[in-house]
Amino acid sequence: MKLSLSYKLKNYAIASLLFAATLLMNSCTKDEPLPNISAVITSTFTDSKEAPAKVSFTADGVGEIEKYEWNFGDGGTGQGKTGSYTYKQASKYTVILTITGDEGSKKSRQTVSKKITHEVTVEEPQPSITISTNFLNNNQLIPTTVTFTATNSRPVRILSWEWTLSDGRKSNEENPSFTFDKGGEYSITLKVTTSRGTFTFTANAFGVNALPKVLTKDATDITINSAKLWASLTEAGFPIPTAIKAGFYLIDGTTTRYISVNNALGTDNLPKDFSATLDGLAADRAYSYYAAIELANRQEIKGETKTFRTVKPVLPTINTDAVTEIAISSGRLNLTITDRGIPAAISRYGFVWSASSTVPTLANATAIDLTSSTSSVLQNLSQNTTYYVRAFAINMAGTAYGNVVTFRTRTPDPKLPTVLTLAVTNIADKTAKLNLNLTDVGFPSPVTETGWIFSTTNSNLTIDSGNGRYWWENNYTSPTALSSDMKDLQSGTTYYIRSYATNATGTSYGETVSFKTTGLSPKAIPDYTAEGTICAKEGQFDVGGKNNLKAEGSMTKCDFTVRGGRCVIKSMKVRWGFSTFFGDAFLSGGMVWTAETGTSVDCINGSNTIIYLKLQDVNGNIVYLNRNREFIFPKSGQSAITSANLPYWKDTFCSTEKSILNTCLTAQQAKDFWIRGFKVIDFVVYWSE
Length: 689
What we know:
The chain is mostly beta strands. It contains two helices and 52 strands.
């Protein structure tokens, strides 16, 4: 368009006036700054985030913004502070908003443009898949091939396919095919992966028909004239049919016979694993057979044909080995089975032996059966006699014998008896008990005489020496133990004793032992001193000694509890003294003891401390004497005083309870009476809490 000159002049004049007015205003007003322009974008999905998705946008602007221009990220544009846009494809979009406005100051304005970005993610829709197949019906017999097709009703891009049959087979094709060689009910599952994840779809179950399958197994337990046939239903078929019978067909040359198996059908009217035992077969002969079942529709299902051959009988091979360990009345028989024969099962084996039959058999000799060993000791034989032995073994083929072995029992060498002289017991003033053990009667048996020789002067005793004998004349054919009481002995006298035994070979002797009858005189009781460190657990310790005891010792770091305290005894001295008299020997003097202890705890002098003198009579019986000269016996069934077995008092003490007393004494008498024949063997210190 062309403008006229007059219009140009007119516009120029107007512009000149506006410029002059502006200059006048600027010269009269203050120059204020303008805010920077900016905006914040918000987006809202109108319905769903799945494509196609409609999104509403709003720009919250700041400053003098004159223009809003939108770029929605897929080529779409728009203007204005608000807008609405529909995304057709699933993706992540970057929205760009360009705003244009003035910045600077009121007097010096500058027009600027700024870009603001905003992210919008549109998701793909979930797939909706229908699985279909070319499988026509449920009556197709195997083998059959089935193709599966997936139809997606939504515009979704499938990234991967994964088909899984219920029998474990898989395929990653979009429309796979599977071949079924086994009948049954099947199902199939499809997993598809999209950008949104993995989704699973399952088709309806379907059935593939199949007939049962019968497996003819190898025959077992084959013998000379028998065998066992086996069969198994490896597949029941689908749907499961009904069977009416099961069995085997046995083929012998040109003859075939059916062997029905009773109870072969289970509760579902299908055969279980079944078998049949055949008897009366010919030895070393080939047979063929196959298993079969008959269905309710008269259809017969057969297994494959198998062949077996009955056993050819072969006797075992057995060797009679040399007889070992030959003795007077016994010998060890030995054998070796070198071949178990055919069949290998040996039903019986062992030895036949005789003293008269030079070729022993099961019919004319004595048999010894074995179970797992290859030798046996033949006993109760006659001495110096020849015997004939032969091994045998029996299997289904018959009885096999080994070679004949001869051996001769020995004649025994002459042998003296063996006799042991045992310790003399029950020693008293004028009596004692003799003991011996006849351990071997020798050869020839029996022992015709055995006993003891005794003397008061001679220790090298024989039946021709000594003061006398105690003996038995008897026929002892086996070892035995014997005892005899000696009476009217001399008091306080030493005796020498020696046992002996006599058989037809001669006389043998035991060792010489000695003993001394008890005297009536009290013993001299010498002092005994024990020194050293004594430390015991649970507050008890012993110091060994003999006769009258004087003990000195020290005791350190004994960790036992005394009335709740900790006792440390640095040293201790205990002295016991006796004065004795002949005749009615009464205990005189007394028992005195002293103790030196640490300053921390006075354990020895504590009120709960008990000290005992341990005595023993000539027969080994034990009694304790306390510091008040009271005799104390251990508890019934016990032999010593321990922390768990405190002693006890009785009003009277009689020889019926302990052999150390010759008469019953009252408690007071027991305190003062010194018993003859005692010796001091120990002292015991016992702490009780």
